[in-house]
């Protein structure tokens, strides 16, 4: 289930990632926002907000226990993938598979759009 620019609940904040891929719930999270155990991965799209997204939001998500964060960096025309350790930088022509969904394959060029 995907949520577009809807809040998620972390320990002391409720950020609104551009996209959050979350576990299915019959009530569509009407009883409360998704929390880290509900979240497979989040995606942020950044151009003018790249410094804030990379320096504040990505560490916030990871420290809360969200296992995977994708930062679509429009300024540098790349996808930054944050899991454990150093980020992986992917360019057009490459593909990415989310950790928890090995059957899915995304082309980085499609995520970046017409750049």
Find the CATH superfamily.
Answer: tt1808, chain A
Structural class: alpha+beta
- What name is given to the CATH topology? tt1808, chain A
Query: What is the domain total for the residues?
Result: 1
Strand content: 25-35%
Number of helices: 2
Q: What are the secondary-structure elements, in order, as H or E? A: EEEHEEEEEH
Main pleated-sheet profile: 6 strands, mixed
The percent of residues in helical segments reads: 10-25%
**Mind telling me the C-alpha Rg?**
14 Å
What oligomeric assembly is this protein in? Answer: single chain
pLDDT < 50 stretches: none
**Outline:** globular
CATH class: Alpha Beta
CATH architecture: Alpha-Beta Complex
Mean pLDDT: 94
Sequence of strands across the biggest β-sheet: 1-2-3-4-5-6
Tell me the total number of β-strands: 8
Q: Cα distance, first to last residue?
A: 28 Å
